[in-house]
Amino acid sequence: MTQHFAVFGFPIAHSLSPRIHSAFAKQQGIAIHYTAIEATQENFSEALNKFHAIGARGANITLPHKQTAFALCDKTSERAQLAAAVNTLIRTDTGWDGDNTDGAGLIHDLTERHRIDLRGRRTLLVGAGGAARGVAPALLAAGIGEMYVVNRSPEKADALVDAMGQPGRVHSRYWDDLKELGSFDFIINATSAGLGTSGLNLPFSLVTSRTLAVDLSYSEAAIEFTSWAKAAGAETVLDGLGMLVEQAAIAFSIWHGVRPETDAIYAELRREIVGLHNGD
Ligand code: NDP
């Protein structure tokens, strides 16, 4: 029997999740129907209820609904609670349970696919929205060194730092103080600035020839930050495509009890993104 899944977001037309999950299901011989549902802030909760009513098995949640979805869940995992955001919903008889696979997806991509040792790295997290909240606890658990959090709205950086509960290790700083923070071994762009036109204007002084720079965005949205990191001389510069595929694989294994192989779909999507940037 075909099982129904969906990703909810706004906008959602360009989401790669239906394609990734359909590829995983085909590979595992599982019949699923996975669709993208556009929902605004106003109708998200109603759209989710309707999806539950048709017997759907699960859902992924993306921008801007991760915090709202967290609040709608009956039960949430510990990592979702630390993030106060969910990206994966599991259907129950009465509603939804929630999890957050973003952080584990990022760590899996960096340490397994790219074989990068994160331990002890002095880390700068730029951004304090849903994605930053999702990855911060996983980065700390992966053994990074001190973490500094900078966000355009400073109160959100403070809230993220407070939620981590490690005052000696995790610090918030003002954007205007970036020039005084020295250099970092690991810089993560968890903002959605690449989707707009205003740019981040980060100083080159943050980067050394040993810096790992990772943008959680991918495709066109990652061009500004990854170009900046390369120009500043970072050792390794990555986008968020691998994280996207890995967070999906973890969600898939939560729903279906089996972990899919991710290299084939990652390579396929990577080829397309490279082609896009070459104007193919
Ligand atoms: P949110 O809307 O929750 O947060 C957006 C963040 O970006 C906030 O910190 C916001 O700051 C900041 N921001 C937006 N515009 C600017 C700007 N012009 N200058 C500086 N800061 C800015 O989004 P998410 O956290 O959910 O997503 C962030 C990014 O991560 C997106 O591009 C998304 O595609 C990507 N992502 C990738 C995933 C993957 O699997 N690869 C998974 C999840 C997200 P403020 O608080 O001041 O508004």
Structural features, described:
This protein is α/β, with parallel strands linked by helices. It is 40% helix and 18% strand. The protein has 10 helices and 12 strands. The mean pLDDT is 95. The chain binds NADPH dihydro-nicotinamide-adenine-dinucleotide phosphate. Residues 63-64, 66, 102, 105, 127-132, 151-153, 156, 190-193, 195-196, 198, 200, 216-218, 221, 240, 243-244, 247 line the site of NADPH dihydro-nicotinamide-adenine-dinucleotide phosphate.
Q: Notable features of this structure?
A:
alpha/beta; 18% strand; 6-stranded parallel beta sheet; 6-stranded mixed beta sheet; binds NADPH dihydro-nicotinamide-adenine-dinucleotide phosphate; single chain; 280 residues; globular
Averaged pLDDT, please?
95
The chain-level structural class is alpha/beta
Q: What is the global morphology? A: globular
Measured by DSSP, the beta-strand proportion falls in 15-25%
Alpha carbon gap, first and last residue: 39 Å
Q: How would you write the strand order of the largest sheet? A: 2-1-3-5-6-4
The unique ligands bound to this protein are:
NADPH dihydro-nicotinamide-adenine-dinucleotide phosphate
Number of strands: 12
Number of H/I helices: 10
Helix content: 25-40%
Give start-end ranges of low-pLDDT stretches.
none
The H-and-E topology, N to C, reads as: EHEHEHEHEEHEHEHEEEHEHH
CA gyration radius, whole angstroms: 18 Å
Largest sheet: 6 strands, mixed
Detail the topology: elements first, then pairings.
Layout: E1 3-9, H1 17-28, E2 32-38, H2 44-53, E3 58-61, H3 66-72, E4 75-76, H4 78-83, E5 88-91, E6 96-99, H5 102-113, E7 123-126, H6 130-141, E8 147-150, H7 154-164, E9 170-173, E10 186-189, E11 212-215, H8 223-232, E12 236-238, H9 241-256, H10 263-277
Parallel strand pairs: 1-2, 1-3, 4-6, 7-8, 7-10, 8-9, 10-11, 11-12
Antiparallel strand pairs: 3-5, 5-6
